[in-house]
Amino acid sequence: MQRRELFSSLASSLKGEKKQEKQLRPPYFGDESLFHNECNRCDGVCATVCEEDIIKIADDKTPYILFSYNGCTYCDKCTDVCEFGVLKLEDKKYLNAIITINRDKCLSWSHTMCFSCKDPCLDNAIDFKAMFMPEINNKCTSCGFCISRCPTDAIDIKVL
Ligand code: SF4
Ligand code: SF4
Ligand code: SF4
């Protein structure tokens, strides 16, 4: 197995299970309190229509994003099916998080060649300075596609 494949297989075992202090919500909400007031009347249909399978339903019946293997395509499907006015198209925005690379955990920053996060980033938001210094630039949409690809869990999510 080539090193890059090995890294990918290691990454898949991480399943995006990052510890977050706040829940990362789908990208169409204006008022956090609506999740708590309305979602308990719903069967979590937003989670069932997400083709990327990144919406999970918490114990309190509110939806949150987990970047298990995929990311958000901003396809609008979760908001299209929300009948309780929690997710609304007029509130569409990028996911409410800042994505950064932790240099202490990143292989490239330790001079081991790795470009695993670059390929899935369709927004060209990761610059590799001098080959070994990846940094996320301001084109990042917080889509999360890079996160599960990192073999050392070096991409952090800060929920705003
Ligand atoms: S916008 Fe699409 S990909 Fe993103 S969470 Fe909603 S259904 Fe899933
Ligand atoms: S579809 Fe709307 S009401 Fe139902 S769980 Fe999702 S956000 Fe909540
Ligand atoms: S760097 Fe940003 S835009 Fe690129 S894949 Fe990661 S989260 Fe998405």
Automatic annotation (TrEMBL):
> Is Iron among this UniProt entry's keywords?
yes
Kindly give the SUPFAM superfamilies that the UniProt entry links to this protein: 4Fe-4S ferredoxins
Report the GO molecular function annotations.
4 iron, 4 sulfur cluster binding; metal ion binding
> Pfam families given for it?
Fer4
Keywords per UniProt: 4Fe-4S, Electron transport, Iron, Iron-sulfur, Metal-binding, Repeat, Transport
CDD domains according to UniProt: NapF_like
Q: Which residue range or ranges hold the 4Fe-4S ferredoxin-type domain?
A: 30-60, 63-92, 132-160
Looking up PANTHER family in the UniProt record yields:
ADENYLYLSULFATE REDUCTASE, BETA SUBUNIT, L-ASPARTATE SEMIALDEHYDE SULFURTRANSFERASE IRON-SULFUR SUBUNIT
Report the protein name in the record.
Periplasmic nitrate reductase maturation protein NapF
